[in-house]
Specification:
Shape: globular
Largest sheet: 7 strands, mixed
Strand order of the largest sheet: 1-2-3-4-5-7-6
Number of strands: 7
Distance between the termini: 35 Å
Mean pLDDT: 95
Bound molecules: coenzyme A
Structural class: alpha+beta
Radius of gyration: 15 Å
Amino acid sequence: VSPLDDIVIRRLNPSDSFTELTELLHRAYAPLAAMGFRFFASHQDVETTISRCKKGETFVATSGGRLVATVTLRLPESTRDCTWYDRDDVASFGQFAVEPELQGSGLGSKLMSMLEDRAKQTGAAELACDTAEGATHLIDYYTRRGYRLVDTAQWEGVNYRSVILSKSLT
Ligand SMILES: CC(C)(COP(=O)(O)OP(=O)(O)OC[C@H]1O[C@@H](n2cnc3c(N)ncnc32)[C@H](O)[C@@H]1OP(=O)(O)O)[C@@H](O)C(=O)NCCC(=O)NCCS
């Protein structure tokens, strides 16, 4: 029996709790904070979660009615903040989290495949994301999935330099 058997992936809907979503983000990102990377998702408040979700299409995975994973896809028209994201054929994703006890079982990869299909469907040629330059396990994770380094950025409010990674969808 796979741990993913009873998991449903769907769009976030109005009856979902942003508090529950924020708590999931905090739990998933806590080890990164412990490593010294102050990702917004490790400490952001509920209002920030709401505004970040509204910038794109948010997907969740549920298990027995509980939120166990999430990711937000930002379509090309709503991605800014760096030259690569500014391109009108580049979609991006963020707030990417899997419940700690389910990490490493393939749910993250399943969400990424779904996002790549969805981004392609909307006409994007590239799907990009960013992470901390020093989070080598994440850079390796994305690289294994076909993402390549395209740029670096220094976002306000974080204590690390970011790398921008992107995957061709064509
Ligand atoms: C990044 C994240 C969303 C990936 O989701 P996931 O469900 O753990 O991912 P998968 O199971 O598809 O893949 C995890 C990879 O790490 C490996 N892995 C092994 N043990 C693991 C563990 N205990 N925890 C995490 N990954 C593990 C898996 O083998 C897999 O590698 P491979 O498939 O390339 O060989 C999730 O780990 C997470 O929430 N991390 C904390 C938040 C975070 O880093 N977000 C992204 C910020 S840019």
